[in-house]
Amino acid sequence: MKTLVTSVALSAMLAGAAVAADFTLDPRFTDADGDLIADIPTDPAQLVDPSVLIFAYTPVEDPAVYAEVWAEFIDHLSEATGKPVQFFPVQSNAAQIEAMRAGRLHVAGFNTGANPLAVACAGFRPFAIMAAKDGSYGYRMAFITHVDSDIADLADIEGLTLAFTSETSNSGYKAPSALLREMFGWEPGTNYTPAFSGAHDNSVLGVVNRDYDAAAIADEVMIRMAARDVIDLADIRTVYESDPFPTTGYGVVHNLTPELQDRIREAFFSFDWEGTRLQQEFSPFDMDEFMPITFQEHWSVVREIDAATGVSYTCN
User: Fold this and answer.
1) What domains can be seen in the chain, in order of their start residue?
2) pLDDT category of residue 67 using cuts at 50, 70 and 90
3) d(CA 273, CA 291)
C-alpha cells in the first residue's frame, strides 16, 4: 500500500509539470538535432584526443572500493581505446560536473539527479545504464529509519531530522522533498530539519548509527552496502518506496573526437561482466550488462520532477 501511495503522490506532482521540462543547454553547446545533448563539434580545432582518459564513477562514501570494482572495466576500456585510463575518485556531484566542464574528466557515470545538470552544463553525452539481461533496470527512492525508531510512515517524520544527500540528487533530495511537499505541504526547515550527508552511503550509515531520524536514499546503494556487510538490513526499516527511476547514466564529454567516442561506447557494450568485480558488486540487482539509452527518453521522468520542483539548469 505504501508503494501505491507513493505512485499516486508522484503522479499528482508530475501532473502539474510539462510533459518535458524546459531543458536548455549552456550557450557554449549546440543541439542541432534536437536530442537534448550537446553536439560533437564539427570544427576539428574544438575536438580533443587526450593521451590519458580520465574515468569517474558517481560519488560514494569510499571511492577506493570502487576503484577496485571498476578495475577490470578500466583495463577493457584501455584496450579498446589504446589509451591509459585513470580512475578519478570524486567527492561530490558538483566536483564531478566541474571536472568534466573544465576538461579534466572524459568518461563518467553521473547519478540520476545529476545527469541533467551534467548534460546542460558540462556537455555530458550519456549513452548507457546498467541493466539485467531481460532489459529491466532502475532503482527505487526510499525513506528509511532505524528499526527501533518510532517512525512507522512518512507522517511521523514531521518535526524530526531527515537526511538528504545533495541538492542535485534525484532520490537523495529532489524527488523526496517534492513528495513531502505534495503529500503534506511540508517545507524543509519548517516541518522537518533537513541534513545533507553528501552521499547515499553516508545517509544509510547515519540512520544505522542514529545520527539521523530518517533518510531519503536510493535503495540500490543500501542493498550493495548490505551485500558487502557494511550494514545489516535488520537495523533498517523502510517506510516508503517509489516506483523505479533510471539509475546512473554512463557517457562521455561531448568534445572527444568522434572516433574516440565510438571506441568508448563500444567498450561499454562489449565488456564481459562474467566473473568480474563489477558483476559481484551489482549482482544483488541482477545487473550484468550495459544497455543503450538516450537522455531524451530515459531521463524524461527526472526532467519532469525537476520541472515540477522548479529546478533550474543555470550553469555557473
Assistant:
1) 14-136+246-308 (3.40.190.10), 139-245 (3.40.190.10)
2) very high
3) 13
* Buried b / exposed e along 214-228 (16+ C-beta atoms within 10 A): bbbbbbbbbbbbbbe
Report which DSSP code applies to 163: E
d(CA 242, CA 151): 18
Residue 264 has which C-alpha cell?
A: 568508448
Evaluate whether 83 touches 50 at the Cβ level (below 8 Å): yes
Q: Which residue has the higher pLDDT, 111 or 18?
A: 111
Q: What is the pLDDT of residues 214-253, one digit of tens each?
A: 999 999 899 989 988 999 999 999 999 988 888 899 999 9
Q: What is the mean pLDDT of the chain?
A: 90
Indicate the burial class of 82 (C-beta count within 10 angstroms; 0-12, 13-18, 19 or more): exposed
| Cell reading at 53 | 582518459
37-49: pLDDT as tens digits = 999 999 999 999 9
C-alpha distance across the termini of the chain, in Å: 42
Report pLDDT for 315: 87
pLDDT at 8: 46
Residue linked to cell 568534466: 100
Q: Which amino acid is at 205?
A: L
Contact 29, 39 (CB under 8 A): yes
Sequence-separated (6 or more) residues with CB below 8 Å from residue 70: 55, 57, 87, 277, 278
∠239-202-93 over CA atoms, to 5°? 110
